[in-house]
Amino acid sequence: MANQEPAVCHAVIALGAAHQDIIFRGLHLFPSSERKRGVWYLYSLEESARAFELLRRRNTQDPQMRQVMLLCCLLFVFLNLVQRDYDTAFRHLRAGLQVLTELNSSGLPLFGTSAHIPVDPCLLAAFAQLETQSTHFSVINLQLWDHQLEFSQPRDNESDLLHQSVDERRRMIEPLINAMFKFFKRCWTESESEIASHYGELQSIQTRLISEVHRATLSFAKFYAVRYASLTRKQQRGADLIRLCLLTQSVGLRTSLIHNNPELLLPFTPDYAALLSQSKKIIAQFPDRPTVMVDTGVILPLYIVADACQDLTLRWEAIQVLRDWPHYEGPYDSVLVSIILAERCRVQMRARVHNELRALLDNEQLSHAAFESMVEAELRAQMRIVISQRGDGDDTRPVGSQTQTEADVEAEFSQAMSLECQKWTCIRRIKKLKE
C-alpha cells in the first residue's frame, strides 16, 4: 500500500527514520532534550507531519480511506513507541481501536469466516494484539476482544492439522491470552489482603483459565508433533514462541494469587528456571536479532522470572538476558523493563536485609545513620554473591552493567520515571513495595 498511498509512504519513512535513530543511538534512556536533537528524530518528525497532512486532505468518502487511516494509525503507534512517547502512541492506538469497535458494532463483523470482513485480517490481528499487550499500561478502555468468542477447541485430527498454519494457531489463542492479561493485571496490582477479601471469585476465574490453558497446550502439542518438522525455520521459531507463551501463561496463572507470598512461591523455582531456559533457547534462534517486534516474545516470560522467582541468581540472570537484547515487543521495551525489574529487586533485597539486621541487632544501640550504613554494606555483599553465582566472571556487576552500583540502579529508575508511566502495572507494584 505504501507504493500507492502517499500518506502511508510518508508514515513508513517516518517509522524507518525513528528506527534508524535507535540503531545509531541504541535503546539507552536519553534525556528528552538530547533525544530530540538527533537528525533522524527530526527527519522522522518531518515525515510524520507530511503523512498527517495527506490524511487530513484525503477524501473521507474514498472506500480505501478506512484502511489507509488504520494502517497509518498502526505505523504511528510503533513510531511513537520506539521514541518512548507512550502517551502519543496510546492515543493513536485508542483511535484505531475506536474505528474498529465502531465498525464491529455497526453491523460489519470483524471476526468470523465471512469473506466480507471490512478490514484486512493482518491489520485487525495487529490491533487486537496491541490491545492485549497494552493491558498493563492502563490506557485502553476499549475491549476489541469482548466481541470475540472465547478460546474454542480446534479440530485436531491429522488431516486438519496438516492444513493449519502457525499464524492460525496463534490467532486461535489470542482471546484466551487477552483474558489472562486482564486477570494478571487484577491480581498483580492487589495486595494480599485485597486478594483474600474476594479470593473465591478470583480462584474461580483462575481455575477456569488454567483449564483453558491446559486444553490449548494439549491441542498445540498435537499440532507441534505433526507439523514442526515440515515448517520453515522462521515458522518453527513462531511455533516455539507459542509454546513459550502457553508455558508463561501457565506459570503466571498458577502463581497469580500468591505473588505476595515468597514462601509459597519457592516451589515454583523449577518452573521459573524452565521459563528462563526456554527464553534463552528461543533468543539463540534469532540469527539477526530485530529491534522491533509486533508479536509477544521473550520479554513477558523473562519479566515473570525476574519479578517473582525466589532464586535471586535466576532473577539477575533474567534481567541480564533482557539487557543483552535491547528491543521492543509491541509496547514492551526490554531495556525499560530490565530497569524496572532491577529496581524491584533492589527494593526487595534492601527490605529483607533491613529486617534481618533489625532482628539481629534488636538490642544494640545504633544511630540511624550507622544502621543504614550497615544495611548498605550488607546489601552490596549479598549482591556480589548473587552475581558470582551466575558464573559470568565479574562479581562487581549487579544488574547487567560492568560498573553499575545500587545507586546507579536507583538513578536509572528515577530517569525511567520521567516517562509517563505512573499507571503501569509494574510501577504501581513497586510503589506498593515502598509504602
Give a structural overview.
It is built from 19 helices and 3 strands. It is an all-alpha fold. The chain folds into 3 domains: 140 residues; 112 residues, no CATH class; 137 residues, no CATH class. A hairpin with a 2-residue loop joins strand 2 and strand 3. The longest helix is centred in the middle third of the chain and has 29 residues. The protein starts with 5 loop residues before the first helix and ends with a helix.
Percent helix, as a range, is 55-70%
Oligomer: single chain
Approximate strand percentage? under 5%
The string of secondary-structure elements, in order, is HHHHHHHHHHHHHEHHEEHHHH
Number of helices: 19
GO molecular function: DNA binding; metal ion binding
Protein name: C6 zinc finger domain protein
InterPro entries: Fun_TF, Transcr_Regulatory_Proteins
Keywords: DNA-binding, Metal-binding, Nucleus, Transcription, Transcription regulation, Zinc
